[in-house]
Amino acid sequence: MTYEGFTALHLATANSNFEVASILLVSSKGAAINQKSLMEDSRAKRNAVTALYVAAESGDMATVNLLVSAGAETACTVTIKNKQTGETKERTPYTIAVDNRHFLVAYALWSADKRRTSSDEGKQADYEFPSELSAHHDAIKTRQQNEQAIIRTIIATVLSEHVNVGRRWRELGRRLGITEADLDDIRHRCKLRRLKEMTVETLQLWLDRQPYWPNIFDVWWALQDMQMADVADIVLATVQDERNLAGVKDKLDDSDESMESDESMESDESMESDEENGMEQNRNPHLT
Predict the structure, then answer these.
(1) Contacts of 211 (CB under 8 A, 6+ apart)
(2) At what angle do helices 61-70 and 51-58 cross, to 10 degrees?
(3) For residue 122, what pLDDT is reported?
(4) SS3 for 77?
(5) Contacts 24+ apart (CB under 8 A), 234-237
(6) 3-state class (DSSP) for residue 130
(7) Are 150 and 237 in contact (CB under 8 A)?
(8) What gap in Å lies between CA 3 and CA 16, rounded to an integer?
(9) What is the mean pLDDT of each run of 10 residues along the chain (288 residues)?
(10) How many CA atoms does the CB half-sphere of 51 hold within 13 Å?
């Protein structure tokens, strides 16, 4: 495989090296995050490839969320040319994730697009779900609920207990997009003005306003920008520990898909049985 214009960030994502990717992004403050390059192998030639596309193609959930939260462009289009047939097709990070069956990654990318769209329109997005992922709706929503529960645990423990976070709760809220009016309301409702209570209220408000996949890297980046890298790293480590304890993975496995398939088959069989019973009753009105 040959590369042209690949940056260190491209290489880090190509090798699924999250630690190096995060160091590069922090040290450069996100510079060149959307730089495009050429990828070519024996089968296909891809132009305008970004680091986010590389991470999405490989299904690297952590790096995808890191890049998205850092401001990576989610709608960038890559043209792929098949060397054997000459056919070309266009793909985005979202569509390539779907093609490669990285459904949680695809949902995280779709969620990022929806958040940005609703923000641009100045209103909260209505609940939707991508049609390409509809067959995996239940498994994805279960994972989303698990992620929300884990983040609530992080808020109630790591973040609420850290003194420096509490002292700067208002700054953290601003960096997470909480308005001054909302921050004033939190201060008013927390009558004793305890820093811990206001910190929790602020972070809970941020989480409650994530209608789709909640990206913990929004908090991580806010802490990095506040020169609190030590707390940011503790947050990530604790998130991973909580996921391990809960048995949560970054990918939907065969058991998730087979479970949905079984439920769908049971539902279909139940409907068929109901229809047969109805037909039988129509043929014999004395049946109850």
Answers:
(1) 114, 124, 125, 127
(2) 150
(3) 43
(4) coil
(5) 234/158, 235/154, 235/158, 235/159
(6) coil
(7) no
(8) 17
(9) 81 94 92 89 86 96 96 93 92 96 97 79 63 96 95 95 93 97 93 86 96 95 96 95 89 58 49 51 44
(10) 33
Sign of CA dihedral 81, 82, 83, 86: negative
Name residue, tokens 């609190």.
Answer: 228
Tell me, what's the pLDDT at 264?
Answer: 47
Count CA atoms closer than 13 A to 212's CA, side-chain side: 23
DSSP 254: H
Domains (range + CATH), the chain: 2-128 (1.25.40.20), 140-246 (1.10.533.10)
DSSP letter, residue 78: E
* pLDDT, position 267: 47
Q: Cα–Cα distance between 166 and 159 in angstroms, integer?
A: 8
Return the H-helix or E-strand segment holding 213.
none
Edge-to-edge strands of the sheet including 37-40? 2-4, 37-40, 44-49, 78-82, 88-91
DSSP 113: H
- Under a CB-based contact definition with an 8 Å cutoff, are residues 39 and 46 in contact? yes
Amino acid in position 179:
T
180 vs 176: CA distance, rounded Å: 12
